[in-house]
Amino acid sequence: MSDKPVVLVTRKLPAAVEERLQRDYDARLNGSDRIYRSDELIELAKGADAIVPCHTEKLNADVIARLPDSIRAITSFSVGFDHIDLPAAKARGIIVTNTPEVLSDATAEIAMLLLLGAARRAYEGEQQIRSDSWSDWSATYQLGLQVSGKRLGIVGMGRVGQIMARRARGFDMQIHYYNRSRLPPDLELGARYHNAVESLLPHCDFLSIHCPATPETRHLLNAERIALLPDDAVVVNTARGAVVDDDALIAALRSGKLFAAGLDVFNDEPRIHPGYRELKNTFLLPHIGSATRETRDAMGFRALDNLDAIMAGREPRDRLV
Ligand code: DGY
Questions:
Q1: Residue 78: CB within 6 Å of ligand 1?
Q2: Is 95 found in the same domain as 12?
Q3: Which parts of the chain sit beneath pLDDT 50?
């Protein structure tokens, strides 16, 4: 029998990450990458010291209460932690960590891709090429919105929001933002701060959401707030689906109040609201914000650095509780 700590890894992780897991731990890997049901996960966790989950595992209060006593840590392979009931973990003395910083560049890249794709009607253009229905060039055909020089509003000016602002400045965009607290001038870099979402929205030709999903941010973008956006605004979401009220966003896209939306995250993934698929003015991606080779390796190594620290009795870098 190995004397290495036992770790349940709920999803298939990048090869280099799994190699390190197998070198340093008695790792229970998931070769099939099938998402475990909660009762399976609890069964598989028996005798394990730690769990390395992804955001696909819903570790709610009920699941956490039923985890075996042997579990000392949950070191999530994700920056988001809305899938883990932190108070429930804390109550059981389970340390929880996430993987901040390492996915900020990749996520901001996808936000910029969505912003550009939605503004320039990339979905419709792709469709025409792929279905061989492109008839000819025309001066009035497939007109989108110019991005350069426009106003970008950012909700949540954390690491990803700040990188998004930097990338957008490359398009000469004027940055407005809402954050719980104002950034110091060296991070704000001339962006205009709004102390309420309501005062930000009228200044957004483009709105990009970068705040975490919490009870406070649930449906932050609802019908009343969408009404405050300028007509023809474009909405981008790479944070979490829960921040958006789907019915309200779909109604605004359908009515023409909004020009388009670019979305990488959804409520009830992967069974997203069917209304999004029916619209031409949506540019949709399947939650791939952090999906680069470099970032997924870095996320895995960061989760394992946290795990190593906890197993060695040290304070992990990214402790949530
Ligand atoms: C994250 O890390 O939170 C991403 O959404 C992928 O899970």
A1: yes
A2: yes
A3: none
